[in-house]
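Notes from hallway chat w/ T.B., transcribed later so I don't forget. T.B. wanted the structure written out for a chain they're using in a teaching module, and asked if we could keep both sequence and structure tokens in one place. Agreed to drop them here.
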Amino acid sequence: MRQPVGYNRDFLDSYRPNETFYLSLAEREQLREDGRSKMVGEFAGTHAKNVLERLIIDLSWNSSRLEGNTYSLLETGRLIRLGEEAEGKHWQEVRMVLNHKEAISFLIDNKNQIGWNRYTIFNLHFFLSRKLLSDPSAEGRLRDIAVGISGSAYEPPGIPQVVEECFDQILATAAAITDPFEQAFFILVQLPYLQPFEDVNKRVSRLAVNIPLLKSALSPLSWDRVPRKIYTEALLGVYELNRIELLRDLFIWAYKRSASRYGSIRQTIGDPDPFQIKYGDSIEQVVGDIVRGRMDQRQALSHLRDWIARHIPDEDAELFQEHAERELLALHIGRIAGLRLNPTEFEEWQEIWSA
């Protein structure tokens, strides 16, 4: 019932690099402080490699999840590490996850060559859209047809010449911005707003925000626990109102979460997680049951889903599953006493789990 609204060229034209700012100075300084991380910048050593492997899985899972993909974190990890497809999933979901893996690897492996240029963004789109578009020739190139956005009154520009002009202007503007966080957020706003490709525009923007972060040795952004509904509403605010506030707040919140996961370890005590307080005992119970039951990853996922269906309210089910999966992935000998497990139980389970 909302009034249709078209592309507002002035929204892009009025932005002046290093004069106009979507993020305040205080916000940018805080993000930089949160994001400092030597290990991500060096790309060397066992620890850094483990971080990047974890990033590929986390970012592939979270970005796919924001598109409605139903793969779990554990299933995503097995698909990426072992090439093992989960049962009952549509081929497009499998392809989406694998495409994310290839796209993220492209950014990491070419961090010295990537930038705000056609080569980078076109190839990023190619990897993300590969084998998912009805027209394969649309992979990695600008659209020459009109597109619409489901659930929105916004109508992106339909003239190919305008799309091309604005796309190049977005890249040139981003390249001129000196602050990496302002660069990242500018792309997050303007690239989906233009919709330069036939599809997969949001996925391109979610991964592209990591270009200046990787090049500046800052912690990456994995979109951990970003609610799909709020992310959609934030983009609608940009599309229909040219309002960035909700997307800005979501970007800052999401980056702080990611930085705490991949960035430098700070010896501070943070605020407790309310969800962990509410469900900590239940998470420990189901994880302990999985270890004591000597379950492999497939059995564990099936048991976990059945257990959640019986004990956890629907509104908390998805987040509970993520917490439990992360607990299983992080479990080591130094954490088993809290689960009332003995070393023999843990070692026997770990051998099965790792296999």
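Follow-up for T.B.: The chain has 17 helices and two strands. Might be a good example for the class.
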